[in-house]
Structures
1.
Amino acid sequence: MRRFLIDFSSDIRTCSYCGSFFNTGFLCSGCWQKMPWSQNGHVLIRGDNSGSQFILKYLFDWKANENRVCDALLTSLKGGFDQNVFRKLAALHIRRHVVMSQPKAGVNLVIVPAPSKHSRADHAFAWGRALSDILDSKFVPSLEAIAVGNQKNKTRSERNVLELKGHENFSEFQGTVVFVDDIVTTGATARAAYFALGRPPHFEVWSIAYRHLAAE
Ligand SMILES: [Zn+2]
């Protein structure tokens, strides 16, 4: 529990978005307030064709080009990221979505990050590590993206769907498998993860943002 109280106040910094001086956590409070915080904080995603569903828990409803602060934050995560930002976002996510009144709430969770497309640790890993550090949960990077044969005849959105291989099977796992990715759009990667991990009986997806496409 000690790690739950993260101290962001040790150094005076400037807001990464507007540049104003402040003394805690990456963005100034004005910019944090401008972020598109999700109302419900969760949405259901279709699992397999039998009608199963799983829950996506997230912080921000993101539509590109509609909120400059959010665009800037998410873009900055993609670039050279700062682990402190992920820790701050993870703390916010857990405060909202995890019942910490239960002792050892994180022990029954296994955190599985989306694999990098470039076979190196990236933002989904950073997000997953920040979450598992705070919760004292196991961090299990057991998914691997595999190259998909002929890409030529596929549409662009089909090409963006990763084919995943799981190195561990959670079909009998009694705890909850939490698949984490920084941004979830259609849920296709999460669905691929669900199957690659052996359709865990308790499966959730946690992301920083839920991306809404312009057509919605
Ligand atoms: Zn600001």
2.
Amino acid sequence: MSDLLSRLLEQRPWLLADGGMGSGLFERGLESGYAPELWNVEHPERVTAVHRSFVEAGADIILTNSFGGTRHRLKLHQAEGRVHELNSRAAKVARNATAGIGREIVIAGSMGPTGEILEPLGPLSADEAAAAFAEQAKALVDGGVDVLWIETLSSVEELEAAVRGAQSAGVPIVTTFSFDTNGRTMMGITPAQLAVLQRQNHVLACGSNCGTGAAELVASIVNLAAASAPDALLVAKANCGIPRYVDGAIKFDGTPALMADYARLALDAGARIIGGCCGTSAQHLRAMHAALLAHERGARPSAEQIEARLGPVSAGARALLADASGGARAGEAAGAGRSARAGSPRLRRAKS
Ligand SMILES: [Zn+2]
């Protein structure tokens, strides 16, 4: 029998993922600098309340409160010896939050970056990183997650280490990069390169999360879709507008109406799993759910259409959009397409 996420995707044109766990916890009293994962044990009812608000707003997929749950991140809070406890609790808290809801909800085990730079640029070896991700993955699966959800990554090395670690746990894997630097990740990776990584690493779905606003995120999905197989499963999880520093705290300026329009455009762009990231509340998610229910998937939006509805797209993402539309036409004409891109010189450089 196929896994729950695959089964739901066979039945439905799209699935709604959840909103921002971190921002939900900040609203409930989490202090900046404190490890959110500790709340799985210290304040499980507050974590449950955030999950529950997303499920009640229509989410089909919820991410566990375990983004910083590798030993490297937990070490900053002297909790590196509690990886199994905190991650398995995160899974159980999420599962319990769906009790009695009357429909199937995918529990996705969130795995974020280690916070360390990998070799050759940094000190952490790929094997050490993979071992840390494997430790977290096992705990999440022991706690009952349906899939592992590797998110907000920026380097090929860390993505491959995370996937290798997660594969040992034996459940499907979803990976998303944060394309937050002029159309690329902080480490210079493009959406087209992620499309290649998805195929090479056999992950169930891949996509884009967090970053610098809904317009930029939709642009990254258009670029990703242009480089992916037509049936590739793509994920969009945008921050709720642009982050702004107001009165000592980060606020996001996206309205429910903007996030509803983002959800429609993300579907048009080719994403089948659509949610929000930082700043996305249950109220935003409810607007996105209503928008998707009423929307028929349209044509892939142009840069101009994205800008008119969601705001500015960076020059870098625009250049990739121009490349993608030109490249897709050239590929179709030559009968080339996917395999040709797998050997792109840019990817080989990035991986060497
Ligand atoms: Zn985010």
